[in-house]
């Protein structure tokens, strides 16, 4: 809390592009000026992750006494170490960066940060799990800040249909750091004139949660997972609720939440039939897990490994899904709110696309898509018409319709070439899991984790799928041998070290499995090869 003789308040806001950091700064300035204070705001934008991680610096000065004396303050344009009263981070790692910059000090600074993660480029580009440790940031924040307020503000923003900046503004009020009444905060939102009702709801929720323990927020965030209908699903809610009810009955508590999230993804990706297929596959694997692993702690490990990876693989991203996401109405509403533009104003959003011939062919019926890929003249024609770099404005009728029509192909996805390829590969993996589970439980657990290699799109996905196929073949060769699980884990770690695959080649040679590594010509083919499933070696 500010004492009566403290006339200057220094505030640093760290936020990524699209999180409304500029809007939040404007609200604080408007509120300060409305109270008769001097207010100054400056910002240093970043260059990555849309508009990057921007630092906004604000100074508020109560010049009631100095104004009467004809004096004025000299305000700074950037934060100084040990001279910041309030640090606001719209994402957890931004709080960590603020601590590294010495913006946060135990004697002075209140730190308000959302506990959710928006992964950095370095985390996303890692071939394995490159996610930074969140707990270490929480520990440092508690040690370095005079007061630390943190909860999942992204979940609260989603619940209220607003953006995170409004929740942060509510948390600022709840912290009591700024000496302004609630009416002044709310008036600043009204004066902004954009998404006022939803922003006020998010402000109120943020103020409430800033004085509540984290667990209550997490419980409410968990309720979002069970929200039905989910995302873009327009089917029968009763059937979905019946499916969720069966999940709670048929799956142990440790798995049920993850399975429900998987169902949520299947509904958003395809339809109820696809969600049921996911549940049926998981029920089959859970039965096998119980039969071969028992109900002890280790017996649940296989199901834990497979439940999320199966969901992520089944919810693969194709051209239809990309077009679907880019044409959703709530996406446009969010973009308008993020950039601070009223929906009745003229604006243009440009989508940068670079489809390849393979991505054009994958949305076609299976036979037609295969014919297109093997017919040179047809491939050249389709490449000229649809492939290559493109810029589309979704605010123009031709640009929007081109994506909208692709998105409307969603009911036809099950007949597409891409779906045929993906389902065949998933079925081969599941069949190998069943065969391995009956002979080597630990190896099956490692095999269940292999889809982690498959990520991204285009060439990145091809390389990941190539390594997945190599390691699946290695698992067949190792099945029944001593230390098979340890060797497969070692091979996976080697595959995740680099894209070139040199470490994997060395590891394969060390275990006499070099014959599984394809030649340079075979490497490209291995990414889409339809490998026949072979039983474990006796």
TrEMBL record:
Keyword Amino-acid biosynthesis belongs to the record: no
DUF6537 domain sequence ranges: 256-470
Organism: Oceanisphaera ostreae
Top-level taxon of origin: Bacteria
Pfam families xref list: DUF6537, POR
Transmembrane regions: none
Keyword Oxidoreductase attributed: yes
Pyruvate/ketoisovalerate oxidoreductase catalytic domain: residues covered: 17-208
InterPro entries referenced in this protein's UniProt entry, alphabetically: DUF6537, IorB_Oxidoreductase, Pyrv/ketoisovalerate_OxRed_cat, Pyrv_flavodox_OxRed_cen
Keywords, comma-separated and alphabetical: Oxidoreductase
Protein name: Indolepyruvate oxidoreductase subunit beta family protein
């Amino acid at each position: 809390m500010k004492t009566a003789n403290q006339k200057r308040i220094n505030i640093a806001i760290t936020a990524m592009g699209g999180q409304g950091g500029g809007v939040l700064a404007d609200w604080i300035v408007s509120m300060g000026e409305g109270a008769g204070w001097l207010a100054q705001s400056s910002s240093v934008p970043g260059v990555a992750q849309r508009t990057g991680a921007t630092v906004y610096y604000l100074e508020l000065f109560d010049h009631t006494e100095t104004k009467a004396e004809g004096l004025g303050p000299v305000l700074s344009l950037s934060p100084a170490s040990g001279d910041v009263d309030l640090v606001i981070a719209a994402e957890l790692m931004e709080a960590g960066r603020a601590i590294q910059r010495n913006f946060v000090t135990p004697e002075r600074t209140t730190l308000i940060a959302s506990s959710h993660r928006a992964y950095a480029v370095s985390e996303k580009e890692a071939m394995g799990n490159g996610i930074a440790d969140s707990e270490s940031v929480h520990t440092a924040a508690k040690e370095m800040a005079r007061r630390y307020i943190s909860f999942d503000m992204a979940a609260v923003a989603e619940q209220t249909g607003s953006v995170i900046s409004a929740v942060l503004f509510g948390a600022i009020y709840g912290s009591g750091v700024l000496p302004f009444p609630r009416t002044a905060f709310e008036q600043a939102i009204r004066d902004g004139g954009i998404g006022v009702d939803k922003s006020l709801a998010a402000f109120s929720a943020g103020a409430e949660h800033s004085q509540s323990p984290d667990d209550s927020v997490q419980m409410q965030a968990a309720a979002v997972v069970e929200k039905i209908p989910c995302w873009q699903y327009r089917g029968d809610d009763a059937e979905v609720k019946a499916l969720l009810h069966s999940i709670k009955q048929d799956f142990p508590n440790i798995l049920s939440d993850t399975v429900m999230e998987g169902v949520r993804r299947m509904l958003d990706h395809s339809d109820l039939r696809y969600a049921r297929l996911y549940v049926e596959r998981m029920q089959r694997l859970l039965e096998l897990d119980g039969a071969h692993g028992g109900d002890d702690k280790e017996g649940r490990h296989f199901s834990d490994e497979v439940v999320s990876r199966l969901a992520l693989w089944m919810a693969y991203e194709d051209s239809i899904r990309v077009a679907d996401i880019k044409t959703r109405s709530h996406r446009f509403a969010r973009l308008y709110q993020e950039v601070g533009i009223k929906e009745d104003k003229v604006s243009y959003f440009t989508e940068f696309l670079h489809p390849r011939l393979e991505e054009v062919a994958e949305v076609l019926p299976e036979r037609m898509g295969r014919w297109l890929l093997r017919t040179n003249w047809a491939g050249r024609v389709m490449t000229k018409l649809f492939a290559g770099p493109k810029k589309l404005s979704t605010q123009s009728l031709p640009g929007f319709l081109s994506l909208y029509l692709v998105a409307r192909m969603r009911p036809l996805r099950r007949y597409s070439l891409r779906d045929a390829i993906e389902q065949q590969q998933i079925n081969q993996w599941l069949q190998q899991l069943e065969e391995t589970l009956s002979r080597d439980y630990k190896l099956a657990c490692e095999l269940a984790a292999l889809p982690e290699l498959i990520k991204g799109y285009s060439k990145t996905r091809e390389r990941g799928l190539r390594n997945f196929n190599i390691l699946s073949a290695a698992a067949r060769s190792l099945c029944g041998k001593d230390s098979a699980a340890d060797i497969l884990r070692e091979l996976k770690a080697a595959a995740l070290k680099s894209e070139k695959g040199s470490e994997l080649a060395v590891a394969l040679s060390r275990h006499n499995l070099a014959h599984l590594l394809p030649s340079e010509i075979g490497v490209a083919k291995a990414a889409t090869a339809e490998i026949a499933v072979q039983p474990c070696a006796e």
